[in-house]
Amino acid sequence: MLEIKNVTKKFGSFTAVNNLNLHVKSGDFFGFLGQNGAGKTTTIKMISGLYNSTSGSILINGYDIYKEPIKAKSLIGYIPDQPFIYEKLTGREFLFFSGGLYSIEKKTLKKIIDEIIEKLEIGDWVDKRTEEYSQGMKQRITIASALLHDPKLLVVDEPMVGLDPQSALIVKNVLKEKANNGAAVFMSTHSLNVAEEICTRIGIIKDGNMIFSDKTEVLETIKGSDHHNLESLFLHLTK
């Protein structure tokens, strides 16, 4: 579903991402880990088409994100680290606006919105202006808008930032369900316990270079007595 081939991104003389290669298949829940400034957000912005790479290619189900952007982006649901919504709209109005961008027929869109509202437990808040929302509710509406067109690749940047435990649980369950239903989920996070709990594969990037990428269960075989959890292994690899 997602293929990153020899991708490098430079800003002037600074190399933010260096010769990155990665393949995320349908049904994978890929956790992308790294310290601040390691290249996580730059990678996500290249995958979603917000940045052009300096070299290399990124394919979404075979479509090059730079050469065939409309086809590639139609398969992506992007959830940024900070929710961006029009605060003078109600949640429902924002979802209808978002669905219209994908040319979803209005009757079909109404049904999809009702289902997603229930799944994300948005409730009566959906008919209030989003300027009244908490951080967690804004994040739920953002996730809802990313799911409207049933994306085959979900790209998620720090989804748990500012969420209370209830909102975090709802978000985790929705993301896991998406992967279980066959979509590929690519999630950047600083929450190592969340990554270890819900991801099927883990990648660790350091100074723009991928230093680890494998199935989550492989971590158990390499932790050893000195690395009893993902946190200690992560700190060891990135020190």
Write the layout of secondary structure elements.
Layout: E1 2-11, E2 14-24, E3 29-33, H1 40-47, E4 55-60, E5 63-64, H2 69-73, E6 76-79, H3 91-101, H4 106-119, H5 135-147, E7 153-157, H6 165-180, E8 184-188, H7 192-198, E9 201-206, E10 209-215, H8 218-223, H9 230-238
Parallel strand pairs: 3-8, 3-9, 6-7, 7-8
Antiparallel strand pairs: 1-2, 1-4, 4-5, 9-10
Helix pairs in contact: 3-4, 3-5
Low-confidence parts lasting 5 or more residues at pLDDT below 50?
A: none
Structural class: alpha/beta
Q: What order do the strands of the largest sheet run in, or round the barrel if closed?
A: 6-7-8-3-9-10
End-to-end distance? 32 Å
One letter per element, helices H and strands E, the order comes to: EEEHEEHEHHHEHEHEEHH
Number of extended strands: 10
pLDDT averaged over residues: 90
Shape: globular
Strand content: 25-35%
Total number of helices: 9
Biggest sheet: strands, sense, closure? 6 strands, mixed
Fraction of helical residues: 25-40%
Radius of gyration (CA) equals: 18 Å
Q: How would you describe this structure to a colleague?
A:
- The longest helix is centred in the C-terminal third of the chain and has 16 residues, at 165-180.
- This protein has a domain at 87-150.
- The protein has 239 residues and is an alpha/beta fold.
- The chain starts with a strand and ends with a helix.
- Helices cover 37% and strands 26% of the residues.
- α3 (91-101) crosses α4 (106-119) and α3 (91-101) runs parallel beside α5 (135-147).
- It is built from nine helices and ten strands.
- It is globular, with a radius of gyration of 18 Å.
